[in-house]
Amino acid sequence: MTDHTQLAATFRRFADQQATGLSPLYATLSRAAARTPELLDLAARTQPGQPAPNMLLAAVHHILRRGVQHPLAAYFTGHEDLTEDRATDLLTDFCRCHAGRIQRIISARSVQTNEVNRCTVPLPAFAALQQQLDDGQPIKIVDVGASAGLTLLWDRYTYDYNGHRLTLPDSDPDTVLHCEIKGALPPLSLDVTRFVRPVGIEPSPVDVTDREATEWLVSLTWPEQTHRMHTLNSALALAARTPPTILAGTAQDHLADIVAETPDDQHLVFVFSWSIYQIFGSPGGRERLVDTLTELSQHRPLHEISIGHFGQDTPRMIMASHDGGVSRPDIVAHCDVYGTWLDWLATEPAPTGA
Description:
The chain is of the alpha/beta class and 354 residues long. The chain contains 13 helices and eleven strands. An eleven-stranded mixed sheet has the order 3-2-4-11-10-9-8-7-1-5-6, sandwiched between helices.
């Protein structure tokens, strides 16, 4: 039996803490779901570990984007504002009409938004790490929790930091990521030739050549965020032309093998962007990650770039070195969940000592 109290609280938290200010429509619909037992029963079909509000609303969005006719569709296109009372009636009716289809979606799929604009946050860390590792040796990035691998294509995008346009040799001029710099200017000078082809790890990789799979990624984007949709579609087009390399499986399946198989003359960098809690659990995921990398560093030096909340209200980026069983972390930046702003804290090129 569905625990309505707990699930309703989850929908209210989503409305208050995530959707408000970013998606008024999803905030309204989420509150409607929170007070409607029928909708909570349906949302409970979401796979364990997946956020029910994101999944239910994305399933509705996914079906509407297929051209289904329903009065709710007008609100997803931004043509009207939805009142609380009207939201309950329309969402309940829509979910009742399409309950079977919604259930199939949320019981089989997962949240894999692969927010492309988040690449604006680790890019300065790559630049800082390259400055620190000044021996000229190649740098290999492993993105753990890569989804469709769009963040592996970080060198294919164009960046805009406070109006400063950063163009890399293979940058696509039509895929522009924007980030406001707060505080100190981060390092942005990169020699991309030092970075070998990156690798991702993902339990359920998204095939960027599969139209149905990529359509689900777009449906996970909130309706008002049309710029995000455009950027995502542009990045997916780039990825389809040159699909990223992703290893299917869990981090535990691959980390040790990657450490063992990466040539000694390559610096190995593990990136965890909003994925630690999914891999190592929460709370305490960061500590379990450190234990894992510390043990693996007995075999060779490792570098880590981790981005997330880590128990704090403001997200942060941690850079760390792990060598000979000793870990040296440093908080180098605060940032936005979607990479729209970055507050660089490090005053020198990314020190690895705390």
